[in-house]
Amino acid sequence: MADLAECRLDELIIRAEKVDMIETGIKILDVFAPLAAGGTVGLIARPGMGQLVVLAEMFYRLKQKGFTIVLLKPEGNPPEIYDLLDEVDIAVNSIKEA
Asked: Which InterPro entries match (predicted)?
């Protein structure tokens, strides 16, 4: 991930004390990919690695905590995305639309 972000591994760790973190309840995300309140999050994985399952579970848990879920749909509308739409409050096609 550090290579993709073109930075050192220690630069990926959030160190600010005043950043509010969102606990998903999914331990691997909360430890290795913490969500910062007000931030933008992206999941990077090869196809078939289960990222949509993790995303659906994260959406479900965050909705239970009262968060609004906005999904930026990928180009081409892959059919797997439709499984996530039950957990999404707002689905958009572009950043401008969001």
From this structure: P-loop_NTPase
